[in-house]
C-alpha cells in the first residue's frame, strides 16, 4: 500500500507553476458554491509521518483556499473540558457546519494509533477503536459530509534526509522535535500500525489518499487535485447514502409487542409514596456526593407519550441533586446552527462533564419517534438512526458515562383523563394544546414506532427502562430507584 | 443597609403554606409566557454569606419553577479554557438565551470581592472592577435582560448558630466547610467589602435585594415574591433602555473629517513589496513562536468599504501564522442562537485562547456601520453601542489580549475600478454582487458612520489603525507591520 509512495515521484517547477493558477481557480470556485449554497460540509484529515510536510500542506491549503471559510482543528493538547468527556466529544464540537471546510491536523486516529504504537493498546482493542471510527465516518458521510483523508508518506531514508535537512537550517530547526526523531527510530512500528489503520478504514465514502511526500510539488498537487475533484463531483451530484437501509420493520405476525404486555396496574398510596420518595431522593443525593461519582457523567433520557408524566418525574430527580450539578435539556426544534450539523451534534454538545448530570426531556430518539411518525425525517434517515444511536450510546457508556433511558408507559384511556384534567385545572392548563390532541389521534403509529425502537436500541450496554406510569406516584419512585441502582452498580 | 436584614424576621408555617401554591402558580404562568414568547432572558444572581442558604434557595427555585427552563451556572472552579480568556468570558458563555432563566450561584462579583477580602486587591482596583461590572449589567439591561441580584444576609451570631446546627446533624454536616468557618472569623471584613460592592452596584435596572436569611420561610418568600413581581412587571411592559443616548453626532462645522485627510497616494513597487512582505511575514511568524507569545491572545479586526482589500490583507496575515493557531471569523448575519443573546455575545464566543489569533473579517463595528446605515439597528441601539464596544475592548486589553483594529481606506474612484475589474476577471467575478453596487450608492453615509466611529472608539487602549489601501501592496505591508509592532510592544 505504501510502496507506491516510496518510489521517486517528482513534479518539476515549471509544471507546478502551470498547474497552480488553474487549480486555485477551481478550488475557489467550488468553495464559493459551497459557502453560498451550504449543501454539505467538508471534513479533511491531514495525517502523515514526521517531516512529511503536514504543516506545509496545511499552510498551502490555507493560501489556495479562501481561508475565511476554513477551520483548522488542532486537538493536540486536550483541554480539561475535553478530557472530562468521551474521546469523540472534542471532534464533534469541532465539526465544521455545512458550507465550511474543516481541516483536522490532529484526528480521531491520533490517540488509538499512538497508544498502539506505544504498546498501551492491544491489537484487538485497536481494532475495536477502528471499528468505532469506521462507524463515525460512515455517519458523517450519511449525513452528507464530504470526508477526505490524506496520509503523507515517505521511506525511512527519505524521512532521515528530510529531518536532517530541516535541522541544518536555522529558520526551520524549530520544526524538528525530539518526538520526530523518536518516531524515526520506530519507523517500522509506526508504519505498520498506520498501514493497518488505513487499510481497515479506507472506504469509498471516506477514502484515504496516500501521498508520496518527498517532493513538495508532487505532494501539494496530489492533495489539491484530489480535493478539487472530490469537491466538483459532490457539488455536481446529489448526496448519496452510504448505509443501505433494511426495509422498515414488520411487526410480529401475532401482533403482540412489548408495550402490549406492560402491566400498567401498579399503584402506590400517598403515604408509601411520600416515604419512599424521600428515601430515594436522599439516596440519590448521597450518591452524587460520593467521591467516586466525580469520575462519571450521568445522562438521563426521558421519552413517552404526551402527559405520561416526564416533567413530574424529572422534577423529582432534579429535586434530589444539587442544582449546580445538573442541567435539564428540553428537546424541541433544532436551531439553525444545529441543523447545519449531523443529527446527533445537538446532543453531543450537551454531554455532561464528569460529576455532572444532563437530563434530556425527550432525546435523540425523536428521530425514530416523532420525526418518523410525522414524516419530518426521510425513511432512510430514521432507519439508519437506530445504528447511529446505538453507536452514540456505546461511545458514552464506553467512556464511563452512566446512561439511563426511560420510557414512561401510559394507557390511551389514562392519557385522555389527563388531557381533560389539564383543560379544567387552572395551573395545568398551559400544559395542553392542539398539538397534543393531534398527536393522540396517531396513538397507534407512535406505539408502533416505540415498539420498533425498543427492539432495535435496547442493547446490553444501554437497555431501556420501561416504567408503568398510569400511576404517577409509582412511576416517579420507579424512575428514582432505577437511577440509584444504575449509579450504585457503576460506582461498584 | 444590612441592619434591616439582621433583625428578627419570621414567617410562620401556616402563612407559608398558604402563600406557596399561589406564588408557584404565578411563577409558572410567568415562566410559561417567557418560554413561549421569548421576549427577554432572566439573569438571577444568588450571593450570600456562608450558611445563609444559597443552596436551599437554589433548590427551592428549581422546585417551584419549571426546571427545564432554568440554567444553574456554577463558575466555582474555572476550566483551563476559561482561565485562558478574559475573566468575563466564562459568564458570557453561560448567559441564558431569551426565554430562559439563568441562576448564577457564582457570579462576576466572586473574584474581585474575594481578592479584596483576601487583601490581594487595592480598594481603588476593586472600584475599577465594580465599575466594569456596572457597565456590564447596564449592557445586559439595555439589551433587554431582566437582572435580579440577591444577597442572603444574617448577623455574625446568626451565622455561628446556623453553621453549628448544620454541623451537628449527620445529614447536613458535609455542607459546612473549613472555608465557611474561615469566612465566619472574618465576618466583619466580608460584610464590609460586600456592603461596598452592593451599594455601588445597586441600580434600578439591576437591583440588589438584601434578604434576611435566618428564617428559611421568610427568606424563600422574599426571593420568590421579588422574582414574581419583577417577572410580571416586565412581561406587562415594554423593554426600557437604561442608557440615555445622546443625540446622534453632528459633523464638524467645516465638514473636514478624519477620512478626508487620509493620504491615499502611498504606493509600493512589486519588488519592494515582495521583499518587505517576506521579511514581515517571517517576523510575524517568529513572534508567534516566542514563548512569551503564549501568554497573550491576539484579536485582529478588519473593517473598510467593499473591495478595500480586507480579504487579501487577511490572507497575507494568515499566511504568516501556523494554521493551527489562527481562526478567521467572517462576520455575516447572526444565527438564531446569536440573536437570542446580547449583541456582543457572538464576538465573545470566538475570543481566542492564549497563544491563539482570531481574525475578524468585519467585526462588532457592524452595529455602528452597516446596521446603522441600513437601518437594521435602532438609533438608540447603535448609539449606545459605542460605549459597549469600548468596554468590550477594555476587557480584552485589560486581560492581556493584543487587539489591532484596521480600517482599510480606499477612494471612491478606486473602488469603482476594482468593481469593474472584478466583473471582468474570471476568478474574481464571484467577489462582486448587486449588494456591492447598492452599498456604493451610500458611500457618503458609510463614510460619515466611519468618521463617527473613529471619533468615539479610537481609544488609548484600542486605537484604530487607518491604512491607506488604494494600493494593495502598500496596504498589506502596512497591516503586517502594524501587527508586528503591536505584538513586539506587548511582549516587551
Low-confidence stretches of chain A: none
Strand portion of chain A:
5-15%
Summed over residues and divided by their number, the pLDDT of chain A gives a mean of 92
State the major sheet of chain A: 5 strands, parallel
Topology:
Two copies of one chain form a homodimer.
Chain A: H1 3-6, H2 13-37, E1 42-48, H3 54-64, E2 70-73, H4 80-83, H5 89-92, E3 101-104, H6 110-117, H7 123-142, E4 146-153, H8 156-168, H9 178-185, H10 187-201, E5 208-212, H11 216-236, H12 270-288, E6 298-303, H13 310-318, E7 326-330, H14 336-339, H15 345-348, E8 357-361, H16 370-373, H17 379-398, E9 402-409, H18 412-424, H19 434-441, H20 443-457, E10 464-468, H21 472-491
Parallel strand pairs in A: 1-3, 1-4, 2-3, 4-5, 6-8, 6-9, 7-8, 9-10
Helix pairs in contact in A: 2-11, 3-11, 6-10, 7-17, 12-21, 13-21
